[in-house]
Amino acid sequence: MPEQPVLRAVVFDLDGLMFNTEELYDEVGEILLQRRGRHFSQQLKRETRGRPDRVSLQMMIDQLSLSETVEQLLAESDQLLARLLPARLHPLPGLDNLLAALETAAIPKAIATSSGRSYTARVLAQAGLQPRFLFALTGEDVLQGKPAPEVYLAAARRLGVPPAEVMVLEDSENGCRAGVAAGAYTVAVPGPHSRDHDFAGVALVVPSLADASIYRALGLPVPI
């Protein structure tokens, strides 16, 4: 078994990994499609999970023969999210303690998400977390979104760390495929929406960000 590299940086996904926003995305998708007499199937949810917004909406249009454009659906979904986020956004278990442990150890951290810039900034501002990350790369910052590795390769370059020495934390199959393809030490943290996903190639599968295996892999003291 190959020896684990020393991990010198951590890159977090956003939706469904740091926050409960995957369930909000599901609700928005359901409302969008209900308004058009369509059903947001579990299969379509799985296929779109972790992909850039525009790609996911185009998949909806293509598979369900919708008449609207991506821009029209994007504007409508942004309005719905803006209505839901203030009362419903909350961090997922283990996030605060892991961020604090990384800061104590001076391990740099960043975000790589498929979501757009304005949405990402809104979520981080509402949670008060923007200053705690060196940067956030979004689906608008790359040509090919997840499951392509571009966003994680870009994050590693910006951090100045080889991809193999970066821990990627992801909740979805598409996100994990991106991390693995980038050559990063990829950890799957599936939620209720992604427990049936295929996490082939990842280094670890853990139940939450509080799991001791994450701390051990990073050489951090395990919280009691």
Features:
single chain; alpha/beta; 224 residues; globular; Rossmann fold; 9% strand; 9 helices; DNA polymerase, domain 1
Q: At the first level of CATH, what is the class of the largest domain?
A: Alpha Beta
Q: Low-confidence parts lasting 5 or more residues at pLDDT below 50?
A: none
Q: In which order are the strands of the major sheet placed? A: 3-2-1-4-5-6
What number of domains? 2
Biggest sheet record = 6 strands, parallel
CATH architecture name of the largest domain: 3-Layer(aba) Sandwich
> What gyration radius follows from the Cα positions, in whole Å?
17 Å
Task: Determine the fraction of residues in helical runs and give it as a percent range.
Answer: 40-55%
Oligomer: single chain
The secondary structure category is alpha/beta
Number of helices: 9
CATH topology of the largest domain: Rossmann fold
Strand portion: 5-15%
Total number of beta strands: 6
Average pLDDT for all residues: 94
Shape verdict: globular
Question: What string gives the helices and strands in order?
Answer: EHHHHHEHEHEHEEH
CATH superfamily of the largest domain: HAD superfamily/HAD-like
Terminal-residue CA separation: 29 Å
